[in-house]
Here is the input.
Amino acid sequence: MSANKPLALTLGEPAGIGPDIALAAWTRRKELALPPFYLAADRRFLEARSKRLGLKIPTADVAPAQAHGTFADALPVVDIGVAATAEPGKPDDSSAAAAIASIRRAVDDVRAGRAAAVVTNPIAKSVLYRVGFKHPGHTEYLAELAVDGAQQPPRPVMMLWSPVLAVIPVTIHVALREAVAQLTTRDIVETCTIAAIELKRRFGIANPRIAVSGLNPHAGEEATLGKEDVEIVAPAVASLKASGIDARGPLPADTMFHAAARKTYDCAVCMYHDQALIPIKTLAFEDAVNVTLGLPFIRTSPDHGTAFDIAGTGRANPSSLIAALRLAARMVGPSPAEAK
Here is the structure.
């Protein structure tokens, strides 16, 4: 990886499965040749969770620069200065502070050049909201942390990526009726433009092909099933084409995701959350990775939640986190030595 810097992995919600899958991923580091990472966390909390899971995982308090040298023999832990005390499945008063401190530490390290990319474990937004967290989610908070002071945060774009499909929803965590009301030509154009830039820059696709879904069934059936596709989506696609982006649509969403259709594009941009996430979670539930485009640093995340019901049981599957770690390393690219 670039300059041999480690990946910065966040703790996520301490009462969730983030600590479990982080520990599980480290145990498979040699078998899977995982890129070196450190966990921004409270070491004593991790040791207690490891013991609860019946694991014997050595941990080491390190500075980010020491993570590479430690990774083979012990899980590197960069201290966040906040104690975590939550039991599995039971967020407590320490949960929000520990989760936020871990995110801030990881972003600070990446922005300062001490780490190569941020990989985030799942948070529980309801827990954060109880302490006044003002952001709709992880992505928006990361955008704020990406800049200093009064600077305007970048517009983040959420992409779900897997080896078989990449999707982006234009509207995200809002009710369906609000998604329809909020949808604009400008938002579609901005989302697709960021996607094209990042697919070229981060994924090495020389001329990204963007498939743009319609909003309504059959992409509106020539406005007989709603005018939004004619009045909002089609003008966006025309504008994208005029700017040199290989975009097509609006396409009927119900025929965009079969195997032959997927071969015709690099990313599907959909109008609302479930239109994008249902197909990728059906096709690649264990391998999909949440990627934030549009930030000045790389961020990936497992495509699942905190799973309070199985936290601390040893039943959590680390596959999505492992995929997120690998994709982050791929996006960073090789170090000069590795590239020779």
Q: What stands out?
A: The chain has two domains: 1-156+293-340, 164-283. The mean pLDDT is 93. The chain has 13 helices and twelve strands. The domain at 1-156+293-340 is CATH 3.40.718.10 (Isopropylmalate Dehydrogenase).
